[in-house]
Design a protein that fits this description.
The complex is a heterodimer of chains A (197) and B (267).
Chain A (H helix, E strand, L loop, with lengths): L2 E3 L14 E3 H11 L17 E6 L5 E5 L9 H14 L5 E5 L14 H8 L1 E2 L42 E5 L7 E6 L5 E5 L3
Parallel strand pairs in A: 4-5, 6-9
Antiparallel strand pairs in A: 1-2, 3-4, 7-8, 8-9
Chain B lengths: L4 H22 L8 H33 L5 H6 L10 H4 L16 H22 L5 H29 L3 H14 L4 H4 L3 H9 L5 H18 L23 H14 L6
Helix pairs in contact in B: 1-2, 1-9, 2-6, 5-6, 5-7, 5-10, 6-7
Classes of the chains: A alpha/beta (197), B mainly alpha (267).
């Protein structure tokens, strides 16, 4: 591990202000940028908000902080394995992968850069921000069409293929727990929608 | 905050509810009434089992602090016996109306939906309150679980309304399910020493404080579904105290037998 002193001063205990550039830390961020989500391989873990931090622990060991999306997300073990492999291949061991639950993952953490990538891949990104309320019952999306009564047109996702706003929900759960299955009424193609969470 | 036996018992209660309901709903996997519901129940079971895993991991930490004994999620799920599980009786019931012992009937989706709704309506309020727990890990689990519970409630409520305000058959089945299952919810709100200790320590809410919010949600949905709540009953079920119905043993046998036949095995 190489350290470059940018400002004057030494390490802990000298009383002088110092700042050093940690090349290994920087390289770790760069390496992990290329680790995609195993289910949606066009976006990185950082872009989905799963990779939260890359830092030095109290014992100076490289620490990778990840957070699960849904409580039962079955991809978390794969994600940890993928991170470990990327760091091993880059010669960045030793390291520690830490899973934190708080603050709770939210689709609000999906980066702006991820949205066009999701659309190009055929997944409509979440159309509503969640803030602290998540899926409050007052803001629920449309009811399935064969329930009698008016269907609330609330922030319907846009078709990722043709851009039409005339879409309808087919099923609450799509290819994974975090997505719902929709259909475009214009181009008639089905698509996955990343549910606000 | 020092760990107490009541704290551990409370976390296990939450975990057991999630695990047992997850196990029950997973029985529909491959047998759902329509494909979308088959997938929905499998996914919601996954949420619940995920919550159970997080809670069991947390319980293991608490138990180690309390007793020095190291346990794993699997120890809690597969190696405890019936009287050690503290889930509500409601969540262990099979997917059909009141039959005793080994008697069986076809699975009734109305029973599944009504049970899920009654439980999810509680879970939303409970998890929301637990976000303020002095137990940071529990508060973190609560933040995630509350979001998932809202989605589960939304799903179950949609179907409840559809069944009630649907055909004669769906209405009849939904009403029968309500008549059967609502009495099991008395157990949610009865006080006991564990909940008193938890509330006093700021770890969780007094569940009785949640009762009126839950009742309002349930009444609201039942009215919209053109159904009626059954008359109140005297009996209070005792699942949370480790005394279960005759159905729990069969559920545990199915859930635990593989692990017990191959102790220590790993994938």
């Amino acid at each position: 591990m190489t350290r470059y002193t940018v400002f004057s001063g030494a390490g802990v205990g000298t009383g002088k202000f110092h700042k050093t550039f940690d090349a290994a830390l920087s390289r770790a961020w760069w390496v992990l940028e290329s680790v995609p989500d195993p289910e949606i391989p066009v976006v990185s873990l950082r872009e989905l908000g799963i990779l939260r931090d890359v830092r030095r622990g109290a014992d100076n060991v490289l620490e990778i902080v990840i957070t699960p999306t849904y409580s039962g997300c079955p991809a978390m073990m794969q994600i940890a394995d993928d991170i470990a492999r990327a760091l091993d291949d880059a010669g960045l061991a030793p390291y520690r992968i830490k899973t934190v639950l708080a603050p709770a993952w939210t689709t609000d953490w999906i980066s702006e850069s991820a949205r066009p990538k999701l659309i190009a891949y055929g997944i409509a990104p979440p159309s509503t921000p969640c803030a602290t309320n998540g899926l409050s019952p007052e803001r629920t999306p449309d009811v399935v069409r064969f329930v009698r009564g008016a269907s609330e047109q609330h922030a319907m996702p846009v078709c990722p293929r043709c851009g039409s706003g005339q879409t309808e929900r087919l099923a609450e759960f799509g290819s994974t727990a975090c997505k719902a299955l929709y259909r475009c009424l214009e181009c008639r193609e089905p698509f996955d929608y990343f549910k606000p969470y | 905050m020092t760990t107490t036996a009541e704290h551990l018992a409370y976390v296990l209660r939450l975990a057991d509810n999630a695990l047992i309901l997850g196990q029950r709903n997973a029985q529909w996997c491959g047998h759902g009434p329509v494909l979308e519901e088959d997938i929905a129940l499998a996914n919601m079971s996954l949420d619940l089992i995920g919550q159970a895993r997080l809670l069991y991991s947390h319980a293991a930490t608490l138990e180690f602090t309390l007793t020095g004994i190291r346990k794993t999620e699997d120890d809690y799920a597969y190696w405890r016996s019936e009287s050690e599980f503290a889930n509500y009786t409601l969540v262990e019931l099979p997917h059909f109306g009141p039959l005793c012992s080994t008697a069986r009937a076809d699975h009734d989706y109305a029973v599944t939906i009504v049970r899920n709704f009654l439980y999810a309506a509680l879970a939303v309020h409970l998890w929301t309150a637990l976000k303020a727990s002095v137990d940071d890990e529990l508060a973190a689990i609560a933040s995630k679980s509350a979001k998932e519970a809202r989605y589960h409630r939304h799903h179950a409520r949609d179907w409840l309304v559809r069944f009630g305000d649907g055909t004669d058959e769906s209405h009849r089945r939904a009403q029968a399910a309500l008549d059967y299952l609502v009495p099991y919810t008395r157990e949610f709100f009865t006080r006991d020493p564990i909940e008193d200790a938890i509330a006093a320590a700021g770890i969780g809410p007094v569940t009785a404080d949640i009762e009126s919010a839950w009742s309002n949600d349930v009444a609201d949905a039942v009215v919209e579904a053109t159904l009626a709540l059954p008359d109140p009953v005297q009996h209070v079920t005792t699942g949370k105290c480790g005394e279960h119905s005759e159905h729990m043993g069969y559920l545990l046998a199915e859930m635990q037998c593989l692990a017990r036949q191959h102790p220590g095995a790993a994938w």
